[in-house]
Design brief:
Strand content: 15-25%
Shape: globular
Structural class: alpha+beta
Number of helices: 7
Number of domains: 1
Strand order of the largest sheet: 2-4-5-7-6
CATH class: Alpha Beta
Order of helices and strands: HHEHEEHEEHHEEH
CATH topology: Heat Shock Protein 90
Largest sheet: 5 strands, mixed
Distance between the termini: 48 Å
Number of strands: 7
Length: 238
């Protein structure tokens, strides 16, 4: 089956819808808290409103910081991102009293699309444990030989229907909506990074792994290697 192609404008619109969906809830809670402060004189209610505003502002900030790395430009073309920054935003969004994030990865500068892939796969893993649990991220290898796996374990474990097909770029019925755009985007980023995603689900865990496509050349190193070959050829001719 051929990979589904989504119009660039539709992709942008759907990703914007996804980000707005993530942020609108805490922002709405902040507005509600401010309204309570304006109308209420009761000290207990005002304290409740202030606490609501603080928590909601923190949630909105965590989601925006995560989205900036997971979906945004985060630097110019070809830029690298510190995996320590990725861990920070992932913990800010995913780790709480119900969910534990085990980050088993070295702190290095990594091609930004590979970091985007890590964060997007973490989102999918988190969605598979709606009641909380443990998310374990493991990264091995370097440069074009990086392999990553994200495992989730917890009660009421389930992977949303259609996610494997969306990751593969072959959505059911040839259609992608706002609910499926994040998984579809993760697949786009994986293919751009010359990586192949595999999904393995059983009763105890969801495992999503990504490894380099055999024989594929990374988009980040291809121009450099081609330039090196050209220089070698010219030297030989000279």
């Amino acid at each position: 089956m051929s990979v589904f192609s989504l119009d660039a404008l539709d992709l942008a619109a759907l990703l914007c819808s996804r980000v707005c969906h993530d942020v609108i809830s805490p922002v709405g809670a902040i507005v509600n808290g401010l309204e309570v402060l304006e109308e209420e004189k009761d000290a207990e209610m005002r304290a409740f409103a202030i606490d609501l505003i603080k928590k909601s502002a923190s949630t909105a900030s965590a989601r925006l910081q995560f989205c900036r790395l997971a979906f945004g430009a985060a630097g110019s073309a070809g830029a690298s991102i510190d995996t320590g920054d990725a861990e920070l935003v992932a913990r800010g969004l995913l780790a709480d009293e119900r969910t534990k994030l085990e980050w088993k990865a070295p702190r290095v500068l990594m091609a930004k699309n590979k970091v985007k892939l890590i964060l997007n796969l973490c989102l999918i893993a988190a969605a598979s444990i709606p009641r909380g649990g443990v998310i374990t991220l493991t990264i091995e290898g370097e440069d074009d030989h990086i392999r990553m796996s994200i495992e989730s374990r917890g009660p009421n474990l389930r992977l949303a229907h259609g996610v494997p097909a969306l990751l593969a770029g072959t959505p059911e019925n040839g259609h992608v909506d706002a609910h499926g755009i994040q998984a579809f985007y993760a697949g786009l980023v994986a293919r751009d990074s010359k990586m192949q995603i595999e999904v393995d689900v059983n009763a105890e865990r969801v495992l999503i792994s990504a490894a380099p496509i055999a024989g594929a050349q990374s988009a980040e190193t291809a121009p450099l290697e081609e330039a090196a070959k050209t220089a070698t050829a010219q030297a030989a001719i000279g």
